[in-house]
Amino acid sequence: MKIGIIQYPAGNVRSVQYALERLGAVVYLTNNKEELARMDKVIFPGVGEASTAMESLASVGLEDFIPSLTQPVLGICLGMQLMCTYSEEGETRGLNIIPVTVKKMEPTAEQLKVPHVGWNALKTTNNRIFDQIETTDPYVYYVHSYCVPVNDYTIATTQYGQLFSAAIQKDNFYATQFHPEKSGKIGQQILKNFLDL
Amino acid sequence: MLAKRIIPCLDIKNGRTVKGINFEGLRDAGDPIELARRYSQAGADELVFLDITATHEKRQILGKLVDKIAQVLDIPFTVGGGIKSLEDVEMLLQSGADKIAINSAAIRQPKLIEDLAKQFGSQCIVLAVDAKQNEANEWKVYLSGGRVETDWYLEDWVKRGQDLGAGELLFTSMNHDGTKEGFAVEMLAKLNQQLSIPIIASGGAGKKEDFREVFQESDVSAALAASVFHYGEIPIPDLKNYLSKHQICVR
Predict the structure, then answer these.
(1) What is the pLDDT along chain A (197 residues), one digit of tens a residue?
(2) Which of A21, A150, A174, B160 reaches 20 to 30 Å from A43, CA-CA?
(3) CB B222 to CB A119 under 8 A?
């Protein structure tokens, strides 16, 4: 199985690469369109600030390319946010795959900390990406300050001051706000399910 | 609900774990990779590696070690110790560290926090602070591993660190560190009220009750300890069961 990780200057992709390799995948880090198009699956990672990351994507000519991919694509963290139409972070447009606006988390009412850092429980729906996760409250690892509100494409939610999209799916595009590569056995199962799609 | 995090801390020297480690059936107690794997299996939520080597050549060894840890570890980990520059941080993050902890360098040059947050994002910048309460009941910040007293009062410095862009605070009370008599709960509660960033409590863990107390009384996000975990005095699964029975949310 050949997995492409979209390479652009937005954070550390090493952990994602290693997590996939632990599952036996052959991983290619690339921003070459022909190469990415040939991959069985594509990972769209991202850590950092949204408008800067969008500029980086545009500068390597990937802004229009990513939405045109036809194989399963998994956005992670900022990757998920950039799949949306618009983000309040840096007031930037996104890739417009999921028609929703990414919002700043404001859990002030409960005096919760932002960024939302740490392990939080996942409420999943019946989606193949959550196969064989039988724990009632699977915990996954989060680090983020912005979130995708619950919308028609939400396939899992997490509560932190507000209910937000822990994962979304539209057609071949999957995405998680949490970091499956840092979420222990649960995260590994989710990555495995993605590889098995 | 966001779970309270339990974080074992490992000291690294020349690529090896120092301080005794007492894990049943461990082949090589000095091998950080095997330890990291064991802690992850035991249910640790995160790991902190503190490099106490710090010469330039040895930093390269650290980079390689971080890369190897990232290969096996499926939970987040922070690397700290002697980090002075953007280049240090870039090397560690590229090697696979999730976060880095800065301490002395941030005090000597506070702008470093700002530069790091701008370049890499606040989420990966942990401000580590060692502080001691003196006889006048003032909390003063120390640097160089607690050897040098600074002019900073704890509450001022951590607020400044947060404003400059630190994403998390790792606060070690030098009065409590090594005593095994519990965390600096009162100060931690105060800091937790004052700061909007998550706090990791460090120094003083001796028994399970200490963890319960620090989470219940100060509501910090995480608690860090070294020897009680390394010597097997508190197995992490037992600790989590215990906390869970006391209505503290753990993973």
Answers:
(1) 899 999 887 666 889 999 999 999 999 999 999 999 999 999 999 887 889 889 989 988 999 999 999 999 999 999 999 999 999 999 999 999 999 999 998 866 667 888 899 999 999 999 999 999 977 789 999 999 899 999 999 999 999 989 999 999 999 999 999 999 999 999 999 999 999 99
(2) A150
(3) no
> Can you give the pTM of this predicted structure?
0.93
Facing B74 at nearest CB: one of A115, A143, A184: A184
Q: Which residues of B are catalytic?
A: 11, 130
Q: Does B64 touch chain A (CB under 8 A)?
A: no
B70 and chain A: CB distance < 8 Å anywhere?
yes
Domain spanning A2-195: which superfamily?
Class I glutamine amidotransferase (GATase) domain (3.40.50.880)
b/e A148-183 (16+ beta carbons within 10 angstroms → b): beeeebbbbbbebbbebbbbbbeeebbbbbbbbbbb
Kindly provide the ipTM of the predicted complex, given to two decimals: 0.90
